[in-house]
Amino acid sequence: MVSTVESSPLQNAGTGGYECDLNATLPAAPSIGTGTWTMQSGPGTPTFDNVTDPNSGVTVDTYGSYVFEWMELNGVCTASTDIVNFDFYAPHTASAGTDDAVCNDGSPIITSGSVGGSASSSAWSTSGDGSFVDNTVAIATYIPGTTDAINGSVTLTITTAGVCPSANDDVIFTLDQEPVANAGADFDLCSNGGDAFLSGSASGSATALTWSGGDGTFMDNTVGNTQYTPGTGDIGAGFVTLTITTDNPNTCPADADQVIITIHPGAEVDAGSDFSITESDDAYLSATFGGSASSASWNSYGDGTFDDNSSSYAAIHTATNGCQQRFGNTEISTDDPAGIGLPVG
Length: 345
Known about the structure:
It is built from two helices and 32 strands. Strands 1-7-6-3 form a four-stranded mixed beta sheet, with no helix packed on it. The chain has a four-stranded mixed beta sheet with strand order 9-16-15-12. A four-stranded mixed beta sheet has the order 18-25-24-21. A hairpin with an 8-residue loop joins strand 4 and strand 5 (57-60). The termini are far apart. The chain has four domains: 17-88, Immunoglobulin-like, CATH 2.60.40; 93-176, Immunoglobulins (Immunoglobulin-like, Sandwich); 179-264, Immunoglobulins (Immunoglobulin-like), CATH 2.60.40; 267-334, no CATH class. It is mostly beta strands.
């Protein structure tokens, strides 16, 4: 009788590890006999390329921790088993959000980032000179810097961290220039001084402007330098506030500025009706003035004299050249109390 002595297999399922996908290569070291792979535990279902291959590939359908068993048989000997652990992690994902445009008015930028997979953390970085309130949160607040504003845009990048390779994504924010309105400096106008000459402008990103306000009329309310004729309401109120407003061609709001025109009553004067006197008589003048005028004075185009040329009622013009003077002209003029117009005569 011949007896055959068979050796027991020396099982070795190898050393496990982790994968950043759903695939792994099993690392068993074969000894003698025939081996077979099975799953002992895990959240999903495995598919083996070849269950008898010690280095078979395996694909699982769910991320998580798995335990695989390598069992070897050799004849009548007791089966030998060993296990190996594998963790399957989802690859990192990162989204910085969609490129966008924001107004460059000093307001912070709010990102709309997100991370996924097995990423355990993330961090934002910038191509510019601004700063994050907290760059470790996906929805972060970024304050643009001076260089960002000068360049007109900034690129923000979110990058993941964790056991698997990092992922990153960029978002570009365009920084729109603000429109700027300038109505010019406040000024004064006489009610009888004609039109108001406006010196407005629009700059920055503005492409159009509009004047408004008052009950008067604009020569052209779509240009900065234009003329405005005050209305009766403006004159009665003694002032008018005019507003220049830009358009809003981008993400920035329209801008506006105002100019206040103070309207003073015009000076008024009446020298009286023309009259005749004899050569030897004095001329008794009687004038009136009003409006904004606070005083008046007489002037002569002849060679006579006034007893008081600052009195509108008692001024006397006396001829000094006897019979040679056949006529004489006199004029009364007001002062210019507002300092904005010419005396009225």
